[in-house]
Structure formats: C-alpha cells, structure tokens
Q: What sequence folds into this?
C-alpha cells in the first residue's frame, strides 16, 4: 500500500529523529522553559528577521488556532473564516468550545477576500451581534491554493481598516513558501499579519508548530492560555529540539527542502494527470491535489494506494485528495501514474 | 411620534396589568414554584392538548433558545439554522457562548428546508466535525413568513430521520397561528416538534415566554439549567400570573385576539402599500412587513414615525421594517398611509 | 400561612406598581435605551454623587454577578469569594459556566478578610495556576452581617495592592445601609469598590437591579455582554420605571424606608427571641436572622409559618432562616412570637 | 547541575526511543487509528484483565483530566477534589474552562475521604447548586501518598452510593503500584473506578498517557471530545508505539521497573535524610519527597542541585520537593546526601 493519505503518515525526518536521540538524556526544565525552545525561538526570529515577536512551541495546529483565538478575543467577538477553513471544518467546533463564533464565508478558490470581510461587517449591527475581530486564513488554503503577496497585502489592509487581527494558519506553510507560484516571503508575511505559525507536524516533525505572535496585545499571559487550553507539554523541549533540527540553515534548512520536495512530487502528479485529461477540483498550487476520477477508477486505485475520497460521488465521478510529503518518493508517484494510466486507457 | 418600531414598545395588555396588580400582595414561594406558574402550565397543556409535556415560565426569548440548546446538546453537537435566524443573528453569539456551533444556511424566504438539513449532514464527516443535532427555526420567521403544515411536517420527518431535535422559536407564535395563510394549529405543532415556546413579550405581556418541552430527554434537570444560565426569576410567579391572563379562554383568549389584531393592522399596511406600487423585501405573512422605499421618503417618514431601517441603502432604496402589535391602532396605520401617499405622489 | 420565607415572596411596593401602570401605554425604544432607564441611571448617579460611573438596569442578581465577572476577567483569571457567597453557593455554577474559577475561603462571620485574599495569592504560582483577579463580596453577607467602613476600606486597599477588582453584591444593600450598626454610606461604598449593585428584587421591586460600574475597564462593550449572557430585557424600561419609583427622594425614598422597616421587623424578632433565650447561628445585623430551635418546635412552627430550615438537624436542633421585608407587618412578627413563646414554654 | 526537579526532565527510556526510531518510516493512518495504538490498547486491556474497556492514547495528563470531565458531565454537574489535586492546583483552571466547578476539600495527607464526599453533598441543595458527580483523585497523590485497597474500596462504594463517577489520575501510577506500601493491584483498581490513566510522561515516555474508560456512559463519542479539546495528535501512533515499548512484558515491563527504580531512589533519600534528623512535609510513599530544610541549606543546595521550593519560607525553614525518576542514578542520590551532610553538620 502506497500512501498519499496525508503529510503526517510517517514519523520525522531522520535529522529530527537524530536530534531527539542525541539530546535524549539531557536534563532540562519542563514546559518549554529550556534552552532548546529558547534557541529554536531565536532561530525563528532570525528567519523572519524580527526579534521583537513572541514565539511559542506548540503541540499541534488545533492548539495553535484555538489558543490564539481564545487569548485574543473578548467573549462577544467573533472569527471570520471561509467555510472550508480548517478551524471551522476540521476541528470539531473547538473554537466555539471557547465561546466564540466563526462567521463563515464561501471561499473563492479556498481563499478569503477583503469583500468577504466587508460582508461580515454588513451583517454586524450593534450589541445584538458579535463583533468580527479575528480573521482566520490558511497559507496555503485547505485546497492547496496560496495567497499572493498582493492578496495578502489587501487582506492585511482590510483587517487594519476594521481593527481586526489577521491570523495565518501555517500548517503547511513550507509548501506555500516553496511552491513555484509563490511571491510572498516569510519575512513579508510576518509584517502583514498579527500572528502565524510555522507548521512542523505536516512537514517532517514528529509533532509541533512554532507559533509566532507579532502583535503584543495577543501575547498577554499567553503561557497561562496554553496551559488552560491543555496544550503545555511537560517535556516542552521536544518541540524546541525538533525545530532546531528543522530550521538549521534558515532558508537552506531541511524545513524548506522537504516542502519543496513535496511540492515537486505533487507537481509531477498534477502535470501528468493533466496530460491524461484528468480534471481537478480547485487549482491547488502546493502539495495537495484533487483529481476528479470515475468511481470505478477510484475503487481500483484504493487497492494499492491509500488516500481520501474528498467528496461524495456525483455523476459517476469522485474527487480524491492526493497528498505528497517529504517522504514521498518518485517511485511512489510513478507507481500511481502507471496504475492510473492503465485504468484510464 | 408613532411607533412601528417593534411589538415590544409598550407595556402589557390591561388585563395582564390588572392580574399583576390584583395578585400583588399575595405571598408565594419563589423561582416559579407557585400556584400561578403551575396553573399557567396546566393552561398551556390544555391548549395544546398534551398533559405529559413540561412547561417552564421563562423570562425572555433568548433565555428560551440558549437554555434549551445548552440543555439538549453534548459539547460536540451543533445547531442548524438559517443565517437570518434570531438565535444566530440577534443574540450576540449567546449560543456559541455555551460552546455550540450554529451551522448557518441561507434561508429560503426566511425558512429552513429539509434539503438544508441534508446539506448540513453532507458537511459532516467524523470526529473532526461537530454533529448536527438541533434544528432551530422560528414560527413565524424573522421576516414574517410562516411554515405551512406540509413544510413543518417535512422538517419534522427529516429531523427524525437524522435523529435531530426540532425546536421552534415562537416569539411571535400568536401571529403565525392567527394569520390568514396559516394551516398549522398549535396542537399539530406540538406533535411535530420537540420543544417550542409561546411568546409573551412580543404579544402583550410585560415579559415572559412559556417554554414547552415535549421530548423528555431535553427536560432533564432543566431548572438547574435555567438557573445556571441566569434565567431563574426570583418572583417567578410574575410570568405565571401573566400567562394566566393571556391564555384565559384558550383559543378565544386575548393572546390570540391581540395577535390577530396585529396581523390585521399589518395586512392593512401591506395591502395599501402594494396598491401604491411599493415593493417588499420578502413576502411576510404576519405582523412585520418590509417595504422598500426611496431613501428620501424614508428620511421624511422618520420625522413622524419610529421604525428600523432593515438594511443599508442600495440604488437609492432602503428596506424598512414596520411592526404592528396589539396596541397599534387603525389611526396609527392611517396616519402612516396618509403621509406616505403624500411623499410618493 | 405567614411568610418569613424570603424578601421576594410578594409583588412590588404599591408606588412601583403605580408607576408601571401609569407608564404602561407609553411607547419607548427597547432594551433599556429609553428615557426611564436614562433617568433612573442619573438618579443612581446623584445618589452616589458620581456622574462618571456607568449604570445598567439588570433583570436580576445572578445576571449582575455573572455578567460582570465574565466581562471583567480574562480566561485565566479567577474570582475569590467566601464559600457561603451567593455567587458560589446559590447560582448553580453559573460563574464557572463562563469559564472562571471561584476560589473559596471559609468566611469569618460570613465575611471575606484581607488575609483570605493573601491566602488566595499564596496558592497562586505561575502559568499553572489561575490568577486571582476579582474579589466577590456581598453587603450584607448571606448570613446578614455587614462590612464596617474599616473592613471595607481594608478590603479595598488589599485588592488594589494585588491589582484586583472589588465587587459588591448588593442584593440587600438597602438593609445594610439602613441597619443600626452601619457606618458605611453608599457614597463611600462607591469610592471603595469597582462595581456594585443596588438590589431591587429583594427590596420592593417586581424585579431588577441597578448595576453600578465605577471602573471603566469593566464596562467595555458591557451591553454586548448583557445580551450574550441572555440578560437584555426587551422592555428594558420596566426596570428604569421601577427604579424611578424606588429612588424618588434619594435617601428619603421608599427604597430606604422599606429596607429600614425590614430591619426593624427583624430586630424585633431577634431581640424578642434573644430574651426567650433562643441561640442564633451567626450574628446577623440585617433582615435575615437564623435562630436555632428544637426540631419539635420547628415542625410545629411550620404549620403556620413558611420559612427555610437553614441546615440539617444536629443534636435535636435546627437553625431556621427568618426573613423580613417591606411587606412584613408587626402583626406577622407578633403572631410568630406568640406561637413560639407557647411552644418554648 | 543534578536534577531532582521533576520526573519529566529527560527524554524517554532508550527502549522507547528505539521503538520510535524503528517505526519511523512506516506509513500509517493518522489520529490514533493505526495498528500500534490498537495493539497498545490491547496490551493495556491484557494488563488490567478487562477487554470490554475503552483505551485512548492521550497526549498528556491535563488533556486526560479535562477531556474526561468535559465528556462525562452535564453543564450543571461538578467535580469533587482535594484542594491540592492536580486538576485544581496545577492546570490553570482548565476544568472550569469547560464550565464545571471543582468543589475543593482540604485533603487528609493528600487524600480524599468518603466523609469529604458526604460533605460535598451536604453543601448541595437543589436547582440552585451544582450536583457533585465526578470524584477526582490521584494515585499517588500530589504529595506522594497512596490510597490503600481499603481506602480506594471505601471511596468507590461511597461514589456508587451517590451515583458519582470515580476517576483516578495516574500520572505517576507506576510509582503507586510498585511502592513498598502498596496493596492495590492495577487489576483491582480497574474494578473500583470508572476511569483512570496510566501515565507515560512521568515514567519514561517522551509524552503520552493511556486513558482507560471502564464506564461506557463516559465513552460516548469520546474521540469527538478529544478533538474538540484540541488533544487529537495527527501522528497519534507515536503514543501507541511508546506504550508498546513501555508495557512489553506486562508486569515485568520497563514501565514497572522504571517506577520501582524511582521509588528506590526516593526511599534511599528519605531514609538517609530521616537518619540525619531532617523533618518532612507529608508522608510520601513514592518518588516525591518533601524534606523541610533551613533556608541557608536550601540556598547552598541550589548551587549544585535543581529542585522546587515547595512552599514559602516559614520560621527559617523551607520545604523542598525532590523527585526521582527512571533516570536518577545512585550517584545523583549519593552526591546529594554527601552535600547535605556537609551542610547540616
């Protein structure tokens, strides 16, 4: 069975494992108050060229999203997101669990636009309506598209105009930054939003994300919030150690080469399938692609490959999701292409 | 200044006030554990011809909605509602404040359809998504339309098919039951849904709603829930006393004659404005109407009449909301019609 | 049956009812945005001689406590209260329902002391513990005792030293202010705390409390919070109208004469029972007293009088609670004393 | 610097690291739906000789406590715990963050007694008070003491009598089970409580706990609850793999030998310090001890050893906490004893 199921089906990049093994017997203080976390935070600051920001080593993506939202909002304030956004679509109402509404908008190719923010404000009235305060987006989006520099700048401006916070879920940020269409650097991103995270789980870590808070008001007693939201890891250094390994070398680190590799494998799949005349759901630019295939083909493929059916069958066709990762090999891709060519012919 | 602002701009119907004055010096136990509340509950049971249901005297509509939702749902379960539903649109995120998502659907003439419930389920996947469990509708809707017997029956069936609870916000239930298009009796309603309330605040009470819970599972420790949600009135009998006065005589009570009067006043406005060629937003069948008028006309009207602008100006036109109530007089209506005739000519 | 059950067993003082009847047919805007609420708020400001504070007309005491706490605290901040405090003991965990802990201390004669606040801080450590931020007390306390000016000043100082907010639940504030032992004026109180409320429900209103917020930071978007906590009354003016009637004449208003009368009736009971050698639980100074009586006597009394048994029987004795109110008559008291004299002899 | 700071200052036992490295390149499904988690769950079931229970691989102890509480309770139900209990004392109000009160009792040598549960019920009244439903204890307690079989049985019986759930926080369960005073097997424990967890973080895992739910009603949609509480790890298998390594061999596994070693090191410290005449805070029976030392001695010790001061100085003495773990060596202990002998002489 070959996996295109997700970018978290394997363990960690060998360099990450090595770092964990190498530091295993060190004694350090707990809960992220150790030198590895401190060092990794400085590496993140160096990477984005901003040494005033706050960096927290977090266990996972949902804890990043939910803790930041709960820390940033007053009870009567709400989040704006596309309906397909991860925090709305795949986190079991964890945000609402902290008492905050997510106001949903139909995404435009997976993306939120400044007009959608205006629409959220048109729905706002007075003390009878929650106040839209927190703009949640992902880079790349849940369907693999990316915000261009112009789009991100426009969103940033619109948020500022409404006194809103702009938050970027970077579960797959590496893939956005290294995809061929990207024109937005991580340094630029860090000037346009109020907080974002650099995802480790989906890019070669065992687990862990580096949450970057650029807006001081969102960072008030943030560690209290992490603990209250059950996300403070006792052996917090594990995340620091992993990010030290992931980010060593900055833009030349394995963090970026792994993401780049994942993008290349996805591009190979995308280009080859396109040549075969396969249509796609959405126009992903990164490591997730959504070919739409005849049901019979999908069922055959499932014998040898493991992936998600992305939506129910419609007119005899099923959109599937193929995800590539640092561990995806050219052999995996070629095996898939060989099989599908046979099935489609 | 003549008020078409809301159906809660005056105090109570004189018979309600008389009942409060008459019982004022009685001593009773607090928190709704008195004979007036008990008696009013029996009157409600008689009215709907069901003596197994649970009736709670509640302070207001938002407490009814929020307490029932919080009492009925597990943390991972969600509410389905049209986006214009009161619990979503005008309650400042109180439902999310109890930890539950409201999944919104664009209403069809203000109404939720069985297809929308199916759509909510299509968005459901597994442990990564909240489970749609509670269907929230209003009868009449926020824009004055009503569910026919066939529509309500179809919704009820669909909810049962999905093991969902059907809840009917009856803030203006009297107006639904007495409007000329209605074919659904309160007894029938009580067999089709799991809970609903008979609104007092917007139909001649000082305040108070009679919440009817037909599904035993939703009633478990309900008084604990009312208290925890801050809604247990110390002098709870005040609501009982009011409902005794409102419902005396059953279908011939002032509860229904007041609602009927409000509908008639709205119909008079609607018919006359239609004759004048005024277009409407939505197709209200009850005591709220939404004529769309030139901005200049609206601004002139606002000198003598008090009402809401319902949405921002578009192409020089503004939809306004006119609400009639038990206290609206034919003189009020005629004054409005005289003025608008002048303005439009 | 004669009631010493509570101070909310009757309706409202006749002047309050008259005001409601007199204004009944007025049309006003809803949700407390009317002239009666505005006027009542100014009367409160005049009374406490502070025109910069914020006054909100609230439906009840629990909504005052819970909304103020939820509006004032960040998620990781907690409340400190005596274990017998109403917000802990009699509100079904409504405070915790908003996500905040109440740190409890055994009261000293029902009261919180500066030492207890220090103790709450001794239990505080770092990001693993919630931060004590909100000091909740009642004046008078749940067992009828009052804070002297010196005690309230010491608490206020201690709160300031810890950067905590001091909140005073004034459900029975009238009785504290008018009792013979009191040396703390309402004007002084308003300089010592950050927020308090003037209770109407338990002192002659149908319902309603005037919440006074002296600390601007606690008032941010407070009306949004009231709505989100389900406490914004549609016909909000009802509370304004009642407080206009209650407070007319300031310190000479019925608000104070009613409370004073309740205290006198309680004093008459207390003094007479003391003469009879009856011991008391606590040393109440206001309108609630807690005589401890032989079980057999209690059971006999319950045939003619309605009151709470305050705690379970111990050694053949039961402490009961007798509450007097504006509507308690000298006849009621004398009837009780006559009966108990017989029973004890 | 030698660490007696905590039992989570190092990484994992080498066998755990080996298992992670060995399985690193496997592809598996995410979120704990893999064969390692399944296998580890069966190993847990074998260990406790109960194959009907539910086992969840959790990220940490706070997620175990909070998710189980949130999953088990209705909004108006509360938790009973000693004030020093971890869920109250060291989790930043995370439980209250889910809306539930923790009713605190002063512990008896760190333990909850049946009498304390009765006391919680004495404070219960009716719809104005939350219902005590969930009994939270730790084995061993926060101060290292353990419940004997008789004590645990009595608690279990008392909980059943009150229809309450008994939950055992087993962050250090290994140390309880292997300490010399213990007479309660894990199989017996599993028949006396409704849920408990086998802690990995503090006994040789990188992170992770195996939560065992014995009472079906608490397990309803539990995975939805884990996700909603932000605790569902993408690479969930990491916890399964670790528990496979920890529990291989059952009662002869490294899980128990590590705990036993930690206890021995603590016993060596305890016995030697006792010989030196050092008094202790509490009477720990497991791997945490609390000697009370002169302030000057403590300050000297802090130059070479890393540990917590457990409480503020009083009368020139400070209680400190010394924690031993699987990685504590006899050399560490002897170094400490040598130093303190010098300082005390």
A:
């Amino acid at each position: 069975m070959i996996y295109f199921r997700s970018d978290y089906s394997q363990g960690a990049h060998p360099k990450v494992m090595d770092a964990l093994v190498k530091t295993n017997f060190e004694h350090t203080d707990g809960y992220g108050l150790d030198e590895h976390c401190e060092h990794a935070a400085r590496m993140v600051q160096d990477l984005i060229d901003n040494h005033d920001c706050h960096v927290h080593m977090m266990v996972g993506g949902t804890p990043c999203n939910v803790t930041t939202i709960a820390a940033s909002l007053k009870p009567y304030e709400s989040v704006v997101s596309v309906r397909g956004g991860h925090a709305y679509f795949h986190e079991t109402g964890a945000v609402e669990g902290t008492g905050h509404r997510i106001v949903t908008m139909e995404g435009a190719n997976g993306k939120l636009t400044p007009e959608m923010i205006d629409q959220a404000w048109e729905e706002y009235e007075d003390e009878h309506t929650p106040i839209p305060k927190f703009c949640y987006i992902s880079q790349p989006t849940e369907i693999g598209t990316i915000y261009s520099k112009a789009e991100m700048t426009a969103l940033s401006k619109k948020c500022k105009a409404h006194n809103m916070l702009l938050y970027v879920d970077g579960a797959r940020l590496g893939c956005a930054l290294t995809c061929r269409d990207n024109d937005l650097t991580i340094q630029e991103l860090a000037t346009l939003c109020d907080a974002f995270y650099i995802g480790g789980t989906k890019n070669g870590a065992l687990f862990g994300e580096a949450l970057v808070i650029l807006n001081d008001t969102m960072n008030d007693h943030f560690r209290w919030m992490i603990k209250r939201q059950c996300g403070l890891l006792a052996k917090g250094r594990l995340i620091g150690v992993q990010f030290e390994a992931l980010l060593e070398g900055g833009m030349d680190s394995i963090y970026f080469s792994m993401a780049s590799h994942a993008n290349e494998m996805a591009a190979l799949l995308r280009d080859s399938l396109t040549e075969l005349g396969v249509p796609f759901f959405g126009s992903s630019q990164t490591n997730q692609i959504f070919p739409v295939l005849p049901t019979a083909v999908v069922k055959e493929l499932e014998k040898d490959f493991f992936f998600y059916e992305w939506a129910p069958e419609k007119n005899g066709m099923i959109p599937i999701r193929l995800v590539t990762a640092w561990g995806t090999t050219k052999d995996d891709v070629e095996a898939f292409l060989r099989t599908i060519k046979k099935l489609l012919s």
Q: What stands out?
A: Chain C has a mean pLDDT of 97. Chain C has two domains: 2-6+254-344, 14-250.
